[in-house]
Design a protein that fits this description.
Layout lengths: L1 H15 L2 H7 L9 E14 L21 E14 L8 E15 L21 E13 L2 E8 L2 E2 L2 E2 L9 E9 L5 E12 L10 E3 L14 E9 L4 E10 L3 E15 L2 E14 L9 E13 L2 E11 L7 E3 L24 E11 L8 E12 L20 E12 L8 E12 L8 E13 L2
Antiparallel strand pairs: 1-2, 1-22, 2-3, 3-4, 4-5, 5-8, 6-7, 8-9, 9-11, 10-17, 11-12, 12-13, 13-14, 14-15, 15-16, 16-18, 18-19, 19-20, 20-21, 21-22
């Protein structure tokens, strides 16, 4: 296995580092501490728009009455992720590299648009796509600096991996763990690659930025913040981000789990975002406060959660997106569920959710969840001509969503690393709400393996 590590490493170095760097690469833990991970993902996605058309792919060239009313695709994704150790010394150097390949199993110009395949200018989905990239890493003590393509998980700037391939950001990321229980991080990024595209340096935008009459792309995004494990039961988070000439956004989060004796516990999660326009205000005026409070009661393998979410302001709560904006993880409010985020202007929403871990009932690795959420937008979006949100919502928008999901992971034996997920979402909304009527089915089979 050690020889295999060195062979793979030599190939990576040949394309990314100089001969001088390669000469010292085998010292210390650069090779010995390296990891190579493999993931194969098979993904089936079906979204039925009920009485509305699918406007993606070839449908946009057809009269509205002739457009298909659904999106359906099956894809296969393959990912290799390499992470080296660090060279010895007070200042260590490391390397990350990845290769991803997405393959079309079943699709068509009239059924595409799921975000799992790139769509060409002619409206037909690609049969295959992929991306290759990497990042250089520096380490000094508990401080790490990374430059290149990377994933991020900050609540104001997070890459999504809920499609066939993963989203990536391009830029600089700094992390520090010098203090026990405290993570400090910050970054500045100038490009991104969405899960459904092969661009290494694609666009950075927002979820609503692609919906307006004049889609806006961001030049750069920066964020700074941290997470503090204050006690064994309490975690606090605070972040701030700046999208050049778009907005300034702050996030606060608190999570507390209180044991009640026996197998019972109470969990409280509070999340809040404050967003205001800044600089040239290219999206128009923005002044929103979006927050959610979730109360969960646990008893053995069961958990019941009640959540309330509120958006204050005349604009919807918008958040960062990679590439085409179809997939993002930069929102952690409680009522961001399977299909809808319940983030319309002035919206109030509530959710009731039930989770069950069937491992305690003799089915290890199997879990399920069911939820129902309802929301009502209390104000219309800004109608100012310069606002990118103009015309997206009407007055008194109402909607509801019910989700059902199953997950199963094989934890031991020859099939260890195999995971299956199935989810079904039903969403209904009136004509004043942006999210309309859909029935959505997702089936995902993952097989992950640590090669070394």
């Amino acid at each position: 296995m050690q020889n295999l590590r060195r062979a793979v490493f030599a190939g990576l170095v040949a394309g990314t580092l100089s001969e001088g760097a390669a000469a010292t690469a085998g010292d210390g833990g650069f090779v010995e501490d390296s990891e190579l991970q493999f993931l194969a993902r098979t993904y089936y996605f079906n979204r039925d728009y009920r009485d509305s058309p699918n406007n993606a792919g070839r449908n946009r060239f057809k009269p509205r009455s002739e457009r298909n009313g659904y999106r359906e695709e099956a894809t296969q994704g393959l990912r290799l992720q390499f992470a080296s150790g660090y060279t010895p010394g007070s200042l260590g150097f490391g390397l990350d590299a990845h290769a991803m390949l997405g393959l079309q199993l079943d699709s068509g110009g009239g059924r595409t648009g799921t975000g799992n395949l790139p769509v060409g200018a002619d409206g037909h989905p690609d049969h295959r796509y992929g991306k290759v990239g990497g990042a250089l890493r520096l380490r000094h003590g508990e401080t790490r600096l990374k430059y290149g393509q990377t994933t991020t998980s900050a609540p104001v700037f997070a890459a999504s991996s809920n499609r066939t391939l993963a989203g990536m950001a391009y830029g600089l990321l700094l992390e520090d763990r010098s203090f026990d229980g405290l993570l400090l991080e910050g970054g500045r990024f100038t490009a991104a690659s969405g899960p459904g595209e092969s661009k290494v340096r694609g666009d950075i935008s927002t979820v609503y930025g692609r919906l307006g009459a004049y889609p806006v792309r961001l030049d750069a995004v920066g964020f700074l913040g941290g997470q503090w494990q204050a006690t064994e039961r309490l975690q606090l988070s605070l972040y701030a981000s700046r999208f050049d000439d778009i907005w300034q956004q702050a996030y606060f989060g608190a999570s507390h789990r209180q044991p009640l004796g026996g197998e019972r516990a109470l969990r409280v999660d509070l999340d809040a975002y404050r967003t205001r326009d800044s600089g040239q205000s290219r999206f128009g005026r923005i002044d929103t406060l979006a927050s959610s409070l979730a109360l969960g009661y646990e008893q053995g393998p069961q958990r019941i959660t009640l959540a309330y979410q509120r958006v204050h302001g005349e604009q919807p709560f918008d958040y960062m997106a990679f590439g085409d904006g179809r997939s993002s993880a930069s929102m952690v409010l409680a009522n961001s569920v399977g299909y809808s985020d319940f983030n319309g202007p002035g919206e109030r929403s509530w959710q009731l959710r039930y989770d069950l871990d069937l491992g305690a009932l003799g089915l290890p690795g199997l879990s399920l969840h069911a939820l129902h959420a309802r929301g009502r937008a209390g104000a219309s979006a800004s109608s100012a001509a310069e606002s990118i949100y103009a015309g997206l919502y009407g007055r008194d928008g109402r909607h509801r969503e019910s989700d059902l999901g199953f997950a199963y992971r094989v934890k031991a034996g020859p099939l260890a690393g195999l995971a299956l997920r199935a989810s079904q979402a039903w969403h209904r909304g009136n004509a004043s709400y942006l999210d309309g009527d859909i029935d959505e089915t997702r089936l995902v089979v993952d097989y992950s393996r640590s090669i070394w």
